[in-house]
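Field reference: "sequence" (input) and "structure" (output). Example, Shikimate dehydrogenase:
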Amino acid sequence: MKSPSMVSEVLQQRSFNTVCIPAHVAPAQLAALFAGIKTQQNVDGIMVTVPHKISFTDLCDSVSEHAQFLHTVNVVRRNTNGTWQGDMFVGDIVAHLPLTAWIETARQRGCRTSTGLDMFASVRDLMTDFLLKNHQSQK
């Protein structure tokens, strides 16, 4: 999987002794997986993907106002008091992307927004910042 290795690379570039490890789990086993993760003292946060974003919201001790409104999370971190807080990134970024280029087509003129790698980089940075907010185990 590419995403975990890319996130691990960013974390290590920021001098954190941290890696992102994928976990393949069936929806019915999500709560059991999270219960196990909560007991591990060296897990500071989790990135959540489909199909678990909605279900994981109910497993968090607290969620941001944005995540509560959407009833979905894609990142969860352990706070210094041991509670787990969820948030949802991507929607904010997509809604505020600047127009970056005008493209000429054979029939019409249109615009293209900075999606793809630009969006991934922005989401990746927001998610890693959120996860590392309370991180204590630096190199």
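Residues 93-117 have pLDDT under 50 and may be disordered.
Residues 2-132 form a domain with the Rossmann fold fold (CATH 3.40.50.10860).
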